[in-house]
């Protein structure tokens, strides 16, 4: 009788472990597969997160080629450090922190964040815009990117993560390894600088098309 009870408990325990695995975040499930020897699962992780990683790197660095290099480096670092990731933690925040650190390293080497103006091909869903709207959108995004280049790396990172990546202040603080109060100060300073920059640019008189009249 006790054997039957133990057997039933074993089946229930196995079922509970299976249920727990099924309720895990899909990225966490992929991480567990990599840890169990399924290296191909890391390709799935890359496919699931490459858009966010590349987008974050581009916003932080302002240069598409540098962003591609940074995203590749970030995935390499993530693969090597995968054992340190805690299941149940936000994987996107974890790899975002790695991406930000890679970008910080690049910023230090360059001593500034260069800006590569946005081109029309990089705007999502271009078929939903007419030519005039595309040009206007591109112009506005270029102004924003140039405004971001006036910020310190810390200010730019905090602003990008919270205002453009949609992270909360606490999440931004975790990614950057800072106190939330410090992030709030950086964001406040960044928003003030961006506002002043945009006001200065937009207040300049526009030259008529075709030159002076």
SSE blueprint:
Elements: H1 2-23, H2 26-35, H3 40-61, H4 64-80, H5 91-110, H6 131-148, H7 153-164, H8 169-176, H9 180-202
List keywords for this structure.
213 residues, Rna Polymerase Sigma Factor, Chain: A, 0% strand
How is the main sheet built?
none
User: Which homologous superfamily in CATH is the superfamily of the domain at 26-114?
Assistant: RNA polymerase sigma factor, region 2, helix turn helix motif
Mean of residue pLDDT? 74
| CATH fold type of the domain at 26-114 | Rna Polymerase Sigma Factor, Chain: A
> Structural class of the helices, strands and pairings?
mainly alpha
CATH class of the domain at 26-114: Mainly Alpha
Total helices: the number is 9
Query: Which descriptor suits the 3D outline?
Result: elongated
Summarize the structure in words:
By secondary structure, the chain is an all-alpha fold. It has a domain at 26-114: RNA polymerase sigma factor, region 2, helix turn helix motif (Rna Polymerase Sigma Factor, Chain: A, Orthogonal Bundle). The protein has helices at 2-23, 26-35, 40-61, 64-80, 91-110, 131-148, 153-164, 169-176, 180-202. α6 packs across α9. The protein starts with a helix and ends in an 11-residue tail after the last helix.
């Amino acid at each position: 009788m006790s054997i039957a009870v133990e057997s039933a408990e074993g089946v229930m325990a196995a079922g509970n472990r299976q249920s727990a695995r099924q309720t895990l975040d899909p990225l966490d499930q992929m991480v567990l597969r990599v840890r169990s020897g399924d290296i191909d699962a890391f390709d799935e992780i890359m496919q699931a997160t490459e858009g966010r990683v590349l987008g974050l790197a581009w916003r932080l660095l302002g240069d598409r080629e540098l962003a591609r290099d940074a995203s590749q480096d970030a995935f390499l670092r993530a693969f090597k450090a995968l054992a340190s990731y805690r299941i149940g933690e936000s994987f996107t925040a974890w790899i975002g922190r790695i991406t930000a650190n890679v970008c910080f390293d690049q910023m230090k080497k360059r001593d500034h964040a260069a800006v590569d103006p946005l081109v029309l091909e990089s705007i999502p869903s271009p078929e939903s815009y007419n030519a005039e709207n595309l040009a206007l959108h591109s112009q506005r995004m270029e102004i924003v990117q140039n405004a971001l280049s006036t910020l310190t790396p810390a200010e730019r990172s905090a602003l990008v993560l919270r205002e453009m990546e949609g992270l909360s202040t606490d999440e931004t603080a975790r990614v950057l390894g800072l106190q939330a109060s410090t992030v709030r100060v950086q964001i406040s300073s960044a928003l003030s600088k961006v506002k002043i920059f945009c006001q200065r640019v937009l207040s300049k008189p526009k030259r008529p098309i075709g030159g002076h009249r």
